[in-house]
Amino acid sequence: MSGEISTDQIKQYAGDLSATPASSVIQKAVMNNGVLASSENTDSKVNMTPTFSIELDTGDVANQKQSGRCWMFAALNTMRHGIQAQFKIKDFELSQNYTNFWDKFEKSNYFYENIIATAGESLDSRKVAFLVATPQQDGGQWDMLTAIIDKYGIVPKSVMPETYNSSKSSELNSVLNLKLRKDAVTLRDLVNGGASSDDVQTAKSKMLSEVYRILAYTLGTPPTRFDWEYRDDDKVYHIDRDLTPKTFFNKYVGWNLKDYQSIINSPTDDKPYNHLYTVEMLGNVVGGREVRHLNLDIDTFKQLAIKQLEAGESVWFGSDVGQSSDRQIGILDTQIYDKDSLFSTDLHMTKAQRLDYGESLMTHAMVLTGVDIVDGKPTKWKVENSWGDKVGNKGYFVASDAWFDEFVYQVVISKKYLPLELQNVITDEYDKPTVLAPWDPMGALA
Question: Is 364 a catalytic site residue?
Fold first, then answer.
């Protein structure tokens, strides 16, 4: 191999460093303060003042604590906003633990079914390796939550509150993934040993009973009927008796979930715009709603989000929250750190290049609750996070429009805000979307 590093090259590189202006001062600053503090651009804080021309009043933020349920918190937040306003309950939350229980239960079954379907493939096949790497996790997608709600409904947080294991999920995830991997051994052995389909399903049913027990012990037993009591902001007492999770959803949220479409912005060559995509082996409810993304250019993508905000509806969105962000002060901005100048190098990649080369993907879901329009163009966005009120501006963040362009990958939009030609794309391609590989970046879970 001829590409080894020589001693002469190292001397040259050391000389290049010495010749870099102020290299000694920069080195001391970075060594003592770290990369981010040393490259921080204070102008970003001035430009990201939390003032917006369009702003929804959405109340206090929720807190997912030490769990990866941001997608679930964000989706339920969009639904609770209407309840808060209509029924005058400013601190109201929907139960994230209830949907968490059914999501993990259904994900377990989804995993078992995928293990059965791939039992004939070798353990080192990419699909099997992908499945067993993470049998289930806290993350998810908008369509996955709607699949849970379609089947199980939702309940107020007071009816099924958080537990130690929902708020701090690592112990539960460790036990559950151990069980799922162990069960995968049994299911693969049954299928490859010639067991009948009925025998395989009988074995799977016993496994699911054990999963249910694990979830009940850690998260509690989901209610099937309940009474909902609350006092509104005027201190008036209310009680609604003998509700089911489905009747509660229909009465207090009342959305037709089929009307909400996942929109993505993925400017990669393999995903032409104005087409519908799904992701193989991405989901939770077997036989339920599948994940489907409509890929649009960034300008159309943003205009749809603005249109929904203008109508008074918040917007679920997925992004790479760790990029160009300051968690404590709540700023998401491509200019917040100037690492290029700090290291005298060019670190720029296009959005497509970051997706293609693994530099970025969707990692976190939040809610858009405002936007600042100046001279007809968005300049910054108000973001409701789910990390509690000790970060940002009482839990709210500000994202620059440039950051939105680069690191926002998904929004969920009511179909009524889409132009007719895009509604027709969804209708025409609904049963035949392009299928992406399980490891495609657009299959990332928030």
Answer: yes
